Amino acid sequence: MLTVPLAHYLILSALLFAIGLTGVLLRRNAIVLFMCVELMLNAVNLTFVAFSRAWGDHTGHIFAFMVIAVAAAEAGIGLALIVNVFRHRRSLNVDELTLLKN
Amino acid sequence: MTAEQFFFYVFGAGMLAGALGVVGARNPVNGALSLVTSFFFLAGLYVLLNAHFMAVLQILVYAGAIVVLFLFVLMLLNLGDDEHGKGKISLTKLAGVGTGAAVMVTLMGAFTGMRDAGLTRGTELSADFGSIEVVGRVLLSRYVLPFEMVSVLLLTGIVGAVVVAKRRL
Amino acid sequence: MQTGLLGLIAFFPLLGALVNGLTGGRLPKPLSGGVATLSMVASFVLSIAATWLLVSTGADDGHGHVSYTPLLWEGWTWMAAGSLDLSFSFAFDTLTAVMALVITGVGLLIHVFSIGYMHEDEGFGRYFAYLNLFVFAMLCLVLGDSLPVLFLGWEGVGVASYLLIGFWYQENANADAAKKAFIVNRIGDAALLLGMFTLYWLTGGLEFSHLNGWLGSLSATDVVSEGSPTGLGWVLTLAAVLIFIGCTGKSAQLPLFTWLPDAMAGPTPVSALIHAATMVTAGVYLIARLSGLFALAPYASLLVAVVGTGTALFAATIAVTQNDIKKVLAYSTVSQLGFMFAAVGSGAFFAGVFHLMTHAFFKALLFLGSGAVIHGLQGEQDIRRMGGLRKSMPLTALTFLVGCLAIAGVPPLSGFFSKDEILWFVLSNTSVTGLVGGWVNWLLWASLLVTAALTAFYMFRLYFVVFEGESRVDADVQAHIHREPLSMALPLVVLAGLAVVGGFAGVPHLLGGPLPVWWLDLHGWLHSAVGHGEALYASQFGGDGLAWLSLGAALVSAAIGIVLARTWYGSASEAPAAFAAKLGKLYTGSLNKWYVDELYEATIGRAYRLKALVLHRFVDEFAIDLAGVGGTAWGVRFLGTVVRQFQNGDVQRYAVMTVLGLGVIVYLLV
């Protein structure tokens, strides 16, 4: 049954995480930034589920479930904040959103 | 190669392609659509991992709700294309990316050297592993507290989102 | 024998100082002056009592002399460190007796005088506090039985001198004079300390009894071998020279004498007490006390004699032209001190102390007399604006004349006897002859003779100009001249009496002395204290013939001086002015004190100022202010600028930081 070894899934997850990380660091649009964060969260979910399968334990599933729930709530509030920021500053360029500078 | 391996590579490639699409897309809407694609392939991977409930959940909630929310906001704000070329990528960011890449390479190297044997506990999976009944049972027995707290969290999220986004309180 | 009497002698002036000092000088004047004077009376009476006790210990020592055992007072442990165990204790031997009686006696008279002199001054109480403090310190100096206790007194009188010179500190010049005195003294004190350390290193102890015992146990060959000093001999010479340098500071010899003329800025009684009778004689006392040391260091003694003679002549050449009455007396003091040092440098310790005593009498008399004049003329000190004061102040004039006769060396007044002793010893000292040759003896003797002539001259010039002739006093000052009050007249009379009879304590054998009564034989009296040192200066050469020559020459030089002064100043005459014009540059040089102060300023003063400037510019301004303080501030600000980059509000920058941290963790884990 387990012809694909666990390591492969983990590597895949790491790659996904790395891609998401790159996006977080390099993109300037706040919403795109957010989407890259979702990518990272999904990479984590994949890790959890892979381990859950390897150990025959459902705990990983539950964890991933919680992550999804939290991601949903976070997406809601985060996007509400972004909307508000856009209304006041008319720009979503994170390089310009630096009121805390110095 | 077995079917499982074949589907693994297909779904994996697809997922990564979608991820790259998110990171590289100029138009944010394109990026959101790439994200959906990526999620679908990820759901496929979950199926391969006997996590059927998770796969469905992924599509329903993640792809179906969260990304839709993203698209709503994108449409609402009516942004144009994100200009890449404007502004240099600062050195610190590149350093960050470099470090991230290094981290990943290290991790991957570590994972490749892993031995599967010690990790699988030698158990055969039950036939209904990852099915909704079993997961549900676990969810509502062992993890009922986190479950209830998540519901409170979602309530908070709803209220918060409404308050933050209103034009006038 | 042990007696607490000694402690009391010094205690009463200290008490007086404390009473006047702690009440802030605000006691009513009669009470303030009374307390101070009574403490002096007590001290004087106790000194007499101590002397009486000392006499009772007299015993024949088998060599034809009477030796007296010193009185002791143990005091308390002062320093106990390592191998040094020093206690603050007093000893009272014959030398101390002479000093203590002079200090308390003359001091008492000056206190009485001061009550009249300082009567209108606001700082009356403060003045007496300082004066009593001075007497206390001076007594510590002469009563101390070890070098540190002496040094305590030495510094104490320096402090009191500073306080009193700058008594009217509101005038900058007075404060400057006080500072000058203290600083110049300090230079000498440094040398004195070094000498003290050398002696301690050599002998392991600092009490005089210990030192004298150690020195006494040396044999002649320990010090001089085959005609030149041994290593030990050189060390002793070094110690003696260092101590002498300290004496030049305190006793105003070349080259550290410049403070004494400036010290005349203080009240005149202060000048009388401190700068004539007592403090400046501390140097002579110290050398007499260490006679054993100086006797074993003939080169050092030679130095003392030469410097003393040189100073005597030098100061006399300045005194002849000065126009301030106190300045003349100040330079005269320096000159007479030179005589004393010439004496002790020639092994005539007795003669030095004898002259110290007689000088205390007549110099105090002269200073107090000038004080009466100044007081009567409401502060006038320039002799060109005096004259004919004999009519308005007859008593002062008479006593002043007595003082002049004494200092000029006119027999049978005291100055004659003491000065004659010195001249004779300088001429006939074999030690000097042995070291450098007889011609030095004659040279020193001749210099002192010339000095004596000059002394007679300038003193009588002073007398004639001030008291005789036509009055040149300002009209409005003239209207207010008054005779001296009783408090001022009494000391003048007493001192005049002492100046007349004081010399009979040292009648030379040439003229039939010494007199058979113990209290008129100063030489015999001092034998217990300085006899050992004198013996080491074994012999005088030449016999009575040479002695008569010296005596005759002394009389002749005094006569020359007096006659010249009479001719030029006895009546109005153009001669002095003409002579001054003929001397030209010499005259102005003398008038300007031979520019010694200017020389010091140009060399040492400037060097110090330059050093201070360099230190200020480089160390203060640059190293500390700029680099140190400024540099630290700059460094902090720089760090801040660097660290500030981490908080620029850029979220992605923060994410980068997180990733970097993650990288570190992963690296450490994997």
Task: Write a concise synopsis of the structure shown.
The complex is a heterotrimer of chains A (102), B (169) and C (670). With 102 residues, chain A is an all-alpha fold.
Give your account of this protein's structure.
The complex is a heterotrimer of chains A (102), B (169) and C (670). Chain A has three helices and no strands. With 102 residues, chain A is an all-alpha fold. In chain A, helix 1 runs antiparallel to helix 2 and helix 2 packs antiparallel against helix 3. The mean pLDDT of chain A is 85. In chain B, helix 1 packs antiparallel against helix 2 and helix 2 runs antiparallel to helix 3. A two-stranded antiparallel sheet of chain C has the order 1-2. Chain C has a two-stranded antiparallel ribbon with strand order 3-4. In chain C, strands 5-6 form a two-stranded antiparallel sheet. In chain C, a hairpin with a 2-residue loop joins strand 5 and strand 6. The relative contact order of chain C is 0.08. Classes of the chains: A mainly alpha (102), B mainly alpha (169), C mainly alpha (670).
Quaternary state of the chains: heterotrimer
Low-pLDDT windows of residues of chain B: none
Please state the structural category of chain B: mainly alpha
Strand pairing plus helix content of chain A: what structural class? mainly alpha
Q: Which two protein chains have the largest interface (Cβ within 8 Å of the partner's Cβ), and how many residues from each?
A: A-B, 72 and 83 residues
What best-fitting shape of chain A do the alpha-carbon axes yield? elongated
Major beta sheet of chain A, specifics? Answer: none
Q: What is the residue-mean pLDDT of chain A, rounded to a whole number?
A: 85
Which residue ranges of chain A are poorly predicted, with pLDDT under 50 across at least 5 consecutive positions?
A: none
Q: How many beta-strand runs of chain B?
A: 0
Count of separate DSSP helical elements of chain A:
3
For the largest beta-sheet of chain B, the strand count, sense and barrel status come to:
none
Q: Note the overall shape of chain B.
A: globular
**Helical content class of chain A:** over 70%
